[in-house]
Amino acid sequence: MSPRFAPAAEAIPLHVLTPETLENWIADQPPRVAAWVRGSGFSGALGSALMIPGDDGGPVAALAGYGTPEQRARQRFPLAGAVPALAPGAYRLASGQLDNPATEALGWLLTTYRFTRYKDASAADRLLAAPGGLDTARIERLAEAEFLTRDLVNIPAEDMGPEALEQAARTLAERFNARMEVTTGEVLLEKNFPLIHTVGRAGPQAPRLIDLRWGSEGPRVTLVGKGVCFDTGGLNLKPGTSMGIMKKDMGGAANTLGLAQMIMASGLKVRLRLLIPAVENSVTGNSFRPGDVLASRLGKTVEINNTDAEGRLVLADALAFGAEESPDLMLSMATLTGAARVAVGPDLAPFYCDDEGFIEALTKAARDEADPVWRMPFHEPYEAMIEPDIADLDNAPSGGFAGSITAALFLRRFTAGAGIYAHFDIYSWQPAAAPGRSKGGLGQGPRAILAALPQVLGL
């Protein structure tokens, strides 16, 4: 379903209360309501809810606990925590002060996400009537793009291989009258995308480079998303516990598709380009091997010391291709390294950039949009770690230190010609359900990026 606000007509009044405001609210209520609330033990605790029945037993109002400021600081969408405890129906905000109404409205919409492709997970939803004074169309656009990202990540590789990922991009292109070209199979070699071909040649579906363009005026914005639809690790085979959620290894592609949808739906005056190298990293007789030295589009050679470090390889060709037309801003998004998760955990999206204007705008936007990111350094003394003896670059430096940084440095080698370059080493997965975030696929960074673009590009 598409996330939408409900009509206000017949919506149940919802009062958002904290432990501090509860008693004053009760004092203004009829004795029957006051007795019901006190008898229920409702305290205004974060995530709690209480339905208030009328004379016929049907709900005439509802309460949502908003907790203390300290408790809310620990939640991205505090109000969303109370939504599952409400009875099914539509609600309108009747009283209470929200810290960030737009963020809370988005969080409410995100609680309605259901992944129903393989199982009827439908449920009677708790809908929200459009709050006054908010740009509700914008909030709906953000939620719709997030639903797209979650769906793409949640679909298993059997049904979301390179062909299906191409179709998802094509559906988006058709919706917004964008142009799209796809380079597939052996043609990748003819058109000088050797790394994309080499990584994907062992897969059950042909590797490909998806190239979507939209817009005819404004700054050039190029998005590059890692589309490894399943990652076995190649001949450096992952253990089963690490392979279990590798359907999400195309999370970079899913996030850039969601971001592209946001940009196009918002009508930003930019010349948007989206590049997705779509492959599977599989094990067959023609898999690439540890010790191989591979050529890249840019001419740099890469020594393969771990076939499980394949994402940076396919991104390298796509980044080099995108940089050839000197975009004003180029962003890569990828589920690239376990080192990033060790450093900042699953909730934060670490990013690398040297442009102070972009960093400042993105950091503020991340706070405003409840889409947290964390700056990491392009630490140049580590450049030597990605320079092996027999090739220009090493795809997996030994030692295990600074794995996210060395991966980012590797990618930056292929971005000459781009104006501002930023790389996001995302997880794109919610390990356990949280308010506004269902377990499974997740968008990380697109809302913050979208909000930062006008300042960064002078729109």
What percent of residues are in strands? Answer: 15-25%
Radius of gyration: 24 Å
CATH topology of the largest domain: Aminopeptidase
- Counting structural domains, the number is 2
| Assembly state (oligomeric) | single chain
Overall pLDDT metric: 97
Q: How does this model look, in words?
A:
Keywords: Aminopeptidase, Hydrolase, Manganese, Protease. This is Leucyl aminopeptidase family protein. The chain is an alpha/beta fold and about 450 residues long. The chain has two domains: about 10-130, Leucine Aminopeptidase, subunit E, domain 1, CATH 3.40.220; about 140-455, 3-Layer(aba) Sandwich (Aminopeptidase). It is about 35% helix and about 20% strand. It has helices at about 20-25, 30-40, 70-75, 100-110, 135-155, 160-175, 185-190, 195-200, 240-245, 250-265, 310-325, 340-345, 355-370, 405-410, 445-455, and strands at about 10-15, 50-55, 60-65, 90-95, 125-130, 180-185, 210-215, 220-225, 225-230, 270-280, 295, 300-305, 330-335, 350-355, 375, 395, 420-425, 430, 440. The strands form four sheets. Strands 6, 7, 8, 9, 10, 13, 14, 15 and 17 form a nine-stranded mixed beta sheet that branches. Strands 2-3-1-4-5 form a five-stranded mixed beta sheet, sandwiched between helices. Strands 11-12-16 form a three-stranded mixed beta sheet, with helices on one face. Helix 5 packs antiparallel against helix 10 (about 250-265) and helix 10 (about 250-265) crosses helix 15. The radius of gyration is 24 Å and the shape is elongated. The two termini are about 30 Å apart. The model has no long low-confidence stretch (mean pLDDT about 95).
